[in-house]
Structures are given as C-alpha cells and as structure tokens.
Amino acid sequence: MRILISNDDGYLAPGLAALADALAPIADIVVVAPDSNRSGASNSLSLDRPLSVHKAANGFYFVNGTPTDCVHVALTGMLIERPDLVVSGINNGPNMGDDTLYSGTVAAATEGYLFGIPAIAFSQSQFGWANLDAAARVAREIVERQFDALQKPYLLNVNIPAIPYEQMQGVVATRLGKRHSAEPVIRALDPRGREIFWIGPAGAAKEGGPGTDFHAVEHGQVSITPLQVDLTHTTQLDALAKGLA
C-alpha cells in the first residue's frame, strides 16, 4: 500500500511524526506537509505566488503553502506512483461539526478525495498532544480496516479521544454535530499602538446529541464521519425552481 501523508500543523508537528511512525511499518509512505502551522486554511490553494518544496532531515517534504497545496503538488508534480490512500493529521485538537469547513486537516484529505483517492483525516479531541501514542495506534488500526464495503473514493473524518488506549470505548459511525457561533474576535494593540484582531475560539457544541461526533468523543468513543463535497441544498431546489418560474 502507498500512502501520502499531510497535515495542517506543519511538518515539525508531533502529530505528523506519530502518524508517519504508525503507518510506516504497513505501507510505503511519503510525507508532504506545510512549512508552518496552517490551521484554518480550509481548502485554499496558493495562486498568488510559486511554491517551493524542500526535504527535511527526517525525510519529510515541506511546502511553503497550505495543506491543500501540499497534496495538490504531491499528486500532480512530485509522486511517480499514485497513492492508494491519502491521510492527514494527527491534528492538534478536534475537527468536529462546523470545524470541518475551516479545517486544513480535513482539507488535505479532501484534496486527495477530489483526485479520486480514498482519504482519511485524523484529529485528537483536545489540544496538547496528550496520549498521542494511543491516537496513532487507533489511526493505524483504522487504516488497516481498508473499508472495502464503502464506495471509493471515500472521505472519512476521524476524531479520537485524547485518552489512554485502554480507556477508549470503541469506534462508531457518526454524523457531524453543530457548534454555536464562534466567540467574538479578541481586540489588542500591536507594538506601535495600532488596533489588531485575533480570531476568537470556536463556539461550544450546539447540537451534540446521540449519533453526533461530539457525543461519541464525549463518551470516549472514536468518531468516524463519512463526508461529501456536494454542498447543494437539495431540499430547497424545488422551492427555488418554483420561485424562479
């Protein structure tokens, strides 16, 4: 099996190293990741400047671009052989509910999916890399499942509780929950006294009942949510057509 690995925390992130170490014994891996933290980059491509690829001492390639750039460059300009799977992570913090629209971790996996390759995004439920070894073990087990029953390509979003492996309560299929609106921006002053703004924290869970990713992780379960890219609001199509008639 050939696996392309990326992330949004950057090529020096502990989560990336843990994921690569976990998958190296079972696959031929290539790691192509951003040169710095690109959290929240979503599916953006860098179209205003050229991109450069460099190889780090640990064998990882790093790109001066977004997670989507990394996967795009790897698939269309670097790799001789097409990978069988694209994986992203392990992210420092959760990507649940509305997070998936902003997440660079999910975006890297999505880019692989858009090229017709099965893809999986891995995130921990809390920030700080606690019990990262357990998360990496879970990630390997999920990759080894191969999900032959799913139509290919598939796009899976995985959130792993940041707890010891022995305390995890299984793996469940979930749907995305929903968050409340994000907290307000944080106002501050730069060293020259000019007003600046920091993006505030994500909102708390608004819809996190049974069956959602929020509920699963809260109860110590690994959450796997199948994602799709089609944003069409199909239930409004008829009403819109009537309004345009």
UniProtKB/TrEMBL annotation:
Top-rank EC class of the record's enzyme: hydrolase
Domain of life: Bacteria
Comment on bound cofactor: Binds 1 divalent metal cation per subunit.
Main location: cytoplasm
Key words of the record: Cytoplasm, Hydrolase, Metal-binding, Nucleotide-binding
Amino acids binding a divalent metal cation: D8, D9, S39, N91
Cofactor(s) recorded in Swiss-Prot or TrEMBL: a divalent metal cation
Chain ranges of the Survival protein SurE-like phosphatase/nucleotidase domain: 3-182
GO molecular function, one term: 3'-nucleotidase activity
Keyword set includes Metal-binding: yes
Catalysed reaction equations from the record: a ribonucleoside 5'-phosphate + H2O = a ribonucleoside + phosphate
The keyword Metal-binding appears for this protein: yes
Enzyme Commission number(s): 3.1.3.5
Compartment(s) of residence: Cytoplasm
Gene3D superfamilies: Survival protein SurE-like phosphatase/nucleotidase (3.40.1210.10)
Cross-referenced Pfam families: SurE
Function: Nucleotidase that shows phosphatase activity on nucleoside 5'-monophosphates.
Family according to the record: Belongs to the SurE nucleotidase family.
UniProt cross-references to HAMAP family, sorted A to Z: SurE
PANTHER family: 5'-NUCLEOTIDASE SURE, 5'_3'-NUCLEOTIDASE SURE
The protein's name in its UniProt record: 5'-nucleotidase SurE
Organism in which the protein naturally occurs: Janthinobacterium kumbetense
